[in-house]
Amino acid sequence: MVFWKEEGSSSYSLQACTREDTPLLGNSPPLSSNLKTFANIFIAIVGAGVLGLPYSFKRTGWLMGLLMLFAVAFLTYHCMMLLVLTRRKLESLTGFSKIASFGDLGFTICGPMGRFAVDSMIVLSQSGFCVSYLIFISTTLAFLSNNQTTPLFLGFSPKVLFLWACFPFQLGLISVRTLTHLAPLSIFADAVDLAAKTVVMVQDVFVFINNKPHLKVFGGLSVFLYGIGVAVYAFEGIGMVLPLETEAKYKDKFGRVLGLGMGSISVLFGLFGGLGYLAFGEETKDIITTNLGTGLIGVLVQLGLCINLFFTFPVMMNPVNEVMERRFCGSRYCLWLRWLMVLVISLVALLVPNFADFLSLVGSSVCVLLSFVLPAMFHCIVFKEEMGWRCLVWDGAIVVFGFVIAVTGTYTSVMEIISPTPTA
Q1: Which homologous superfamily does the CATH classification assign to the domain defined by 7-418?
Q2: What is the DSSP letter of 153?
Q3: Pfam families from the entry (predicted)?
């Protein structure tokens, strides 16, 4: 364990640099009630990943999907608490109370390499989220146009044209220096998102009553890694746990509030994924909203979700901007670097054919490392001299599990994208 004291890489660095937690917290009050902490946990975790859960349930079977979802939720909660306990331990040893983010924790424990590891995972995961947003928006708009494959202009399909139509607007949004100016749009987007997902679940119930399709209970071990990847993606939000605990008024109750939040989100995700598969069975598509058709309600729901993700894109890109500008531009605002990242993300989105497959890829690779491997590793390093063999074995098992899932899950997801398995 390394405690760095030099000005260029110590408390000066931690205080002066904007951190990866900045985008979602903004200028929040320094202390939050339990209710506000619960709300912030909800906002930090619930995102686009939930839209791929019904298709994941189709692949894994509804019971296997639920078991995997709740198992991942528990393990994610456990690793979040490992980060909190590790930060508290370090602060009790050093009296240094400026470890406010995941990156700061990595820096305090392992020096520059620790921060680099966290920064790399943050950039890759956040960029992956933004890629999935563009895939969802372009695929949904192409579906609503009733033409997903026929070239329209210069040989480009509707999906490609819609993606590039978003490009100049995203360049404009990403150019905004502070997220404060985007706050009204973010609030509007969150309200639209909640309403749209509620309508989707209500529609699922009515469709199930009319259809009652045949459902699969277990999809077999061959889809285990696929389901794990989608579930990990859905619960990704570990980068926010330390900032949220920092601003919590009642820190002794934070673990209970976090557990309640994760439990509630697990139930919501289980309902959304289960009802989606329950309604459409083997006809469930990789983006569940496309199953709603092109009726008035279906169109409004899909447009609402597109609006939500369109305005969420610059918020999710902010951690990427912060890391890139800190490392390459001395933490100074750099317009060309921001535009370059949007271009790269747009090009990647063009190459990925399936929304849910990409969720599995991101979840199986960087999200597993960020959510499981690094927290367990940091906890083991800090507590190694006082933890019993059971805790040591448990941390080690999480690290090994994370690496195995990262390697095998990434390979499986890449192969699924390159050569998709036919489904009924």
Answers
A1: Amino acid/polyamine transporter I (1.20.1740.10)
A2: B
A3: Aa_trans
